[in-house]
Structure formats: C-alpha cells, structure tokens
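Recall from the previous chapter that SMILES is a line notation for molecules. Here it describes pyridoxal-5'-phosphate.
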Amino acid sequence: MSKLSLDHYPTVINSPWPAQPSISIIRGDLIHPIVSGNKLFKLLPHLRQAKLAAIETLISVGGRYSNHLHALAWAGQEFGFNTVGLVRGYPEQVLTPTLIDCMQWGMQIHFVNNKDYLDRYESAFWQPWQKMYPNSICLYEGGFSKESVEGSTHWWSSIPAQTTKVVCAVGSGSTLAGLALSAPVGTEVIGVPVFKDPLNYLDLKQKIASLEVSPESYSIWSGYAGRGFGKLSAAQAQFKDEFERDSGLLLDPVYTSKLFFAIQDRLQNDPKLSSENIAIIHSGGLQGNRS
Ligand SMILES: *Cc1c(COP(=O)(O)O)cnc(C)c1O
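With both inputs in hand, we obtain:
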C-alpha cells in the first residue's frame, strides 16, 4: 500500500509567453515520461479501494490510443494488479504504440467490435469478462466518478498559492469538478471543453452538479473544441507546432493543444487577464502523439 503514494509530483514552470510572466504551467506531463498525469490521479482512489478489497484484476475499456488504458496498464504493473483492456477495434489492425506499451506492462488485451462497444455502460457488457477474470473490478472509460473527482483534487498540491485563475482541459469533467470542489476562496476554476456540445454543455454541468459541486465554483470557456473531439482546427494545429517550437514544451493533440490555444486566444482578446495569476494544468497525454 505504501507504494500508492506517488513520489513524482507535478512541478510548476513559468510562462512560455514572455509578455505574461504571471502564468504558471503545472507540469502533469512530468509525473512520468509517458503516463498521463491526469489519468493516474483519477485512478489512484480506485486503486486504493481495490488494494483494500484484495482485488487482483482491474478491467477497463478504451480506444486504441487511450490515455486511460495506458495509465491503467502502467499502474497495474507499478502497484501489483493484473490489468485487462477491452479495446475498441479489431485484432487485425496494426497495434498502436499505446497498446504495445500496455502489453509490455502486462495488460491482457481483448478487442471489442464497434457494435458491442456501444454497450459498455451496461452491466451485461461486463459479466462475461468478470467471469473470465474472477476477483476483478471494472472501471468505466475516461471515468467520471466520485473517486476520479476526488483524485483530481490532488492538483492543488502543486498550484501556487497566489493563483487567481486555474484553467484545465475538459473531457469527462472529472478534473474540472475535482478542482472546483477544492478551490480556495479567491481562485476561479475554468474548464475548456475539447468536444462540441450543441446544448451548451448542459450534460457536463448536470454531471458535475450531481456530485454537489456548485455551478458557481467554476466557469466554462467554450468555442475551443476545434473540429470536434480529437480534431484540431487548422489554426489550432498551426498553434501547436509554433508553440512547441518556441517554448520547448510539448502538447498532446486531443486536450492540451486546445487548452493552450484557448489561453493564447483569451490573452490576445481580454487585456484584463494580464493582471491575473494564471495556472494552466498540463494534464499530460503526450503518449497520444506517437501515431
Ligand atoms: C482525459 C484527459 C483530460 C480530460 O480530463 P477529464 O477529467 O476527463 O475532463 C485532459 N488531459 C489529458 C491528457 C487527458 O488524458
């Protein structure tokens, strides 16, 4: 159990925008050379519970480039669990670097076709797998859960005390909810969704409210989803290249590229922002760059 206290914590670096000295980047990408910081934090409470219950095997689902499965496989090896990845895809497809890592860390991979994968939120989907792997638990994809939100409060340990705004990318919303749940007075929490939603993120807001996180405790910057989940606009793709070249920092294609693009855009269009102390959560995900 003592191993479950991670010894690598994210560190802060100063602004890559020379005109904006009061911006810090919380380097979740440095927790581990390739495992995504954010996904690891979300898993930790589940891992602790599983250890206490003497569970041997953790089963979860994801795509062929999944940061979540990647972090799960790594954590399984690190903390002594068997892991099983139910991957949306077909065995005849070329293995991705993500899946090759997962297998090297001991994950058993089973492919699930697109149609069956649709049922992954039904308990019937999981039953045969639980039978095949006794003494196991199943974790939902990209996990929005009480536990994952609790794990996400961990970021605060690296956010500078004088911060007035914290900005993070939003997928499932756990990271945003975790930050909002534990924000100190005087710090605004802002989420940048990386997927489009014609209903103005109503579902997301309801999910967050279901954990009794107040809607006043965070804001959403919308309009930065590019061409939709996993797809950058041409301007965002160009920004990613230029930003990486100029700053030496790397961004992932799904989350942090859109997040940093949003910050750049707001800095250019809202002069009031320059008087704020901003912390940007670099949530990792760089393994997804290797395609
Ligand atoms: C999953 C993920 C996010 C989004 O986090 P949520 O808690 O699902 O909103 C952000 N960045 C990276 C790198 C991720 O893998």
